[in-house]
Amino acid sequence: MTRKNAISLLVILLIFGFTLWAILPIDAVKLGRKGLHLGLDLVGGVHLVYEADFTANATGDDKNRDINRAVTTIQQRIDKYGVTEPIIQKMGDDRILIQLPGFTDIDAAKSLVEQTGFLEFREVELTDVGQPVTLGDYLEQTQLQLFDKQEKGERIFVATMMDEEGNMQHKTVAFLVSDDKDIRLTDPAGNPVDKEALNEFAGGLSWISARGDDGTPLTGEFLADAAPTISRDITPSPQVSIEWNSEGGTIFDEIAKRLYSPEGDYSPQHLLGIFLDSTLLSSPKINEPAYHGSGVITGRFTRVEVEELANLLKSGALPMPLKQPPLYQEKISATLGADFIQMSWMAGLIGIILVMLFMIAYYRLPGFLASLALIFYGTLVLALFKLIPVTLSLAGLGGFILSIGMAVDANVLIFERMKEEIRMGRTLGAAVEAGFNRAWSAIRDSNITTIIVCIILFWLGSSIVASAPVMGFALTLLIGVIVSMFTAIVVTRTLLRLFIHSPLSKKTALFSVDRGKK
Amino acid sequence: MFDVIGKRFWYFLISGIVILVGIISLLSAGLPSGIEFSSGSMLTVKFEEPVEYDLFKEELVSLGYTDAIIQSAGEGQFLIRTHELSDSEKAQLENSLSDRFGQVTEAQFSSVSPQVASETVNNAVIAVAIAAVGILLYVTWAFRRMPRPFHYGTCAIAALVHDALIAMGVFSILGALMGWEINLMFITGLLAVIGYSVNNTVVVFDRIRENLTKGIGSTFEAVVNNSLVETLSRSVNTSLTTLVVVLALLLFVGASIQNFVVVLIIGIIAGTFSSVCVAPSLLVVWDKGEWGRFIPWRKPSKPKA
Fold first, then answer.
1. Residue A274: which residues within 8 A CB-CB, separation 6 or more?
2. Range of the domain at A168
């Protein structure tokens, strides 16, 4: 054993020891990395991709800023649900990718994400003589004209009706939009609508933005905090307590002062409408001329609903709505995933054992050494998966298992070369060195083509929406190819050199070569 | 020493027949694509009580899902593939099913919009094309010191196209028989086959390069033949070890990555054949200017030798 080889062997043993320590036990925390990172298709979960619905005149900078803000907002909403390691990312210019491992209620996940969460406060539009305006008043006009000429903003018409249990229900029935060109009525989805179709909702009140004295509309933007609470009256019911920031507090008090009715009058002129995503939640009466920065949102809420609402208000509004349905949605149940993992380990184990048996049967001693190198390969790759960390999807496991079969390729190339050299009458030592040197160009060129394919696959994976299988496969195969070049060349060579000068080297049968015969 | 190259036109015949059958199948049966490429929704529902397939299918038809493809996926479990479902449609469908067959759980659900599906198709095609060009460039570059390096690159690509065509053709036949659809895993498998195929071809070409430099062998044909015989056991052994693990994947992991594994198996077999028999033969045919022999009614041009 030469000194140099002894050092290589020592380094290899050290690396092997390190990889074993890193991967065992498989789910232990090592160097700050927890277990093997399993992809969504293995642990189950929800995968959503949304496209942002930007207004036509949004510039590139606007979009970029808004999409980043939307990602943060969604992150905050999801965080409250205790999903471990959710992935919320910007994808391209106008897409958002959401992956929630272990969270399989796709409908809940979607409603959590899709809510725009735009909170605003509105008051009832009044005529010149101070009478509340209804949808009917607008329908009677031959040419649409605003009653409150000062207020150019959108009107929301809300019909209030009784449901079967006798509870009040608010329903947004139409919008009135005014711009430079014209004034028009639309349905709740924003499409133009016939006046006749709206006649049944003629009694619906017209709500306009509630503004402070300087014209700033009061929205959720000015909220400092929101928390679920229980009202302290005769029939305690869940509600959301809100805290305004100082600017919001000022605007709110200015509005309250204007709407306050000393007589405690429950007429539309004195109501403050609380709207979430253009839906009226409740329209409390203003009881005091000033609230000094706090208030409550009441309505027909359950406990769960107030918690969700408080969460939504705190995380803030999405800067833009998301197009529905999502571009891509997928839900994988966790039981399916657990089976996959088991089966994949089994396949990997059986695969590696069969490859080792084949190598030993065909190449004898070198085959045995290559099998040791293969074990080294397996542990090193797994350690890299854990430490980088690589998210292992089913396809990724497939790539890893496939790479086991391909990892011995370099060894096969080298051993075939060695056999040729021995047949040509070289000594074992010379044959080993020649085998490695001569096989190198084939190993290099053939692996580079595989690496090219891996890189292209990775690009494909990053450019499409359902990316997990492709990227996982490309990454694990890439790591596999690179590591296998190292193990086949360095590890096997070092192990073989140990035997060159030992008595075993005289027994050519161990090298599956009959000297002199072809 | 075996004379492999001497039988080159037999290989072309065998490959030609397999590819032709594959192309006929591709043209007639095609490659039915999954929702990733054609958009739509896929829903796996699970009932607590076993439900008969016919009854289930009847119920879906009566709910208006006449276009839905329904597969039985185990006891009381069905896979429904249909157009892109909206939230309300899905909720309605599940409600109707639970009214009819009792408690239903949604084991798996995925839905792909037409926009995303067409992007995926485009990008998959681009990826395959770039992979082919990248490999052509690399192989040409790797063999740049040889006379006519472009021949090596082109023959490697020909072997790759050969393997890809066989993989798609055979998959199309199997798909038609078993009702399989292609998905992203299929494309991933196809790209892996491309990489694998070139990997093998390059090893053979590398030996040709080495033997040519050494100047062993009388003719180009003899050099090519020697080189591929010398690398034959390597080609076979590597294919065997790879096939072994892929079969293990098929047996143990099964259905969920079936597309991927089946493409790999076909591709590995085709790839071994093409790298040993087809690609080196093409090099020789090109070198000798024998293209005329592919056209039966023309007299073969005189070999250059």
1. A119, A121, A280, A281, A282, A283, A284, A297, A299
2. 119-315
Contact A500, A432 (CB under 8 A): yes
- Give chain B positions within 8 Å (CB) of A347: 245, 248-249, 251-253
In this structure, is residue A516 part of a structural domain? no
User: Phi then psi for A412, rounded to 5 degrees?
Assistant: -60, -45
Pair A379, A285 in one domain: no
C-alpha separations of A67 from A314, A320, A322, B74 in Å: 18, 8, 10, 42
Matching fold, domains B5-34+116-294 and B40-112: no
Strand ranges, E, within A322-379 = 328-332
* Cα(B282)–Cα(B274) distance, integer angstroms: 10
Ranges of each domain in chain B: 5-34+116-294, 40-112
In which band, very low, low, confident or very high, does the pLDDT at B299 lie, cut at 50, 70 and 90? very low
Domain B40-112: CATH architecture, name and number where available? 2-Layer Sandwich (3.30)
Examine residue A518 and state whether it is found in any structural domain, yes or no: no
In tens, the pLDDT along A100-115 reads 888 888 888 888 888 8
Choose the weakest-confidence range: A96-100, A351-355, A439-443, B21-25.
A439-443
Chain A residue numbers with beta carbons less than 8 Å from the beta carbon of B253 are 340, 343-344, 347, 394, 397-398
Cα(B226)–Cα(B195) distance, integer angstroms: 25
Is A362 found in the same domain as A309? Answer: no
On whether any CB of chain A is under 8 Å from the CB of B242, the answer is yes
> Omega of the bond prior to A325 within 30 degrees of 0, cis?
yes
CA distance B231 to chain A (A): 8
Quick: pLDDT tens for B251-264.
877 666 788 889 99
Q: CATH assignment of B5-34+116-294?
A: 1.20.1640.10
β-bridge mates for residue A230, sequence order: A238
For residues A374 and A502, state if they share a domain: yes
Residue A350 falls inside a structural domain:
yes
Is the predicted pLDDT of residue A85 greater than 50, yes or no? yes
Q: Are residue A147 and residue A69 in the same domain, yes or no?
A: no
B123 touches chain A (CB under 8 A): yes
Do A25 and A153 belong to one domain?
no
Q: Within an 8 Å CB–CB cutoff, is residue A352 touching chain B?
A: yes
Residues A30 and A59 grouped into a single domain: no
Closest CA to A377 of A29, A108, A15, A14: A15
Kindly state the percentage of chain A with pLDDT values over 70: 92
pLDDT surpasses 50 at B305: no
Same structural domain for residues A152 and A74? no
Burial of A165 (0-12, 13-18, 19+ CB in 10 A): exposed
pLDDT single digits (tens) A271-306: 888 888 888 888 877 777 777 788 887 777 788 878
pLDDT exceeds cutoff 80 at A444? yes
User: Does A131 lie in the same domain as A110?
Assistant: no
Q: How far is CA A155 from the centre of its chain?
A: 36
The verdict on ipTM greater than 0.85 is: no
Residues of B with CB below 8 A from A463's CB? 119, 123
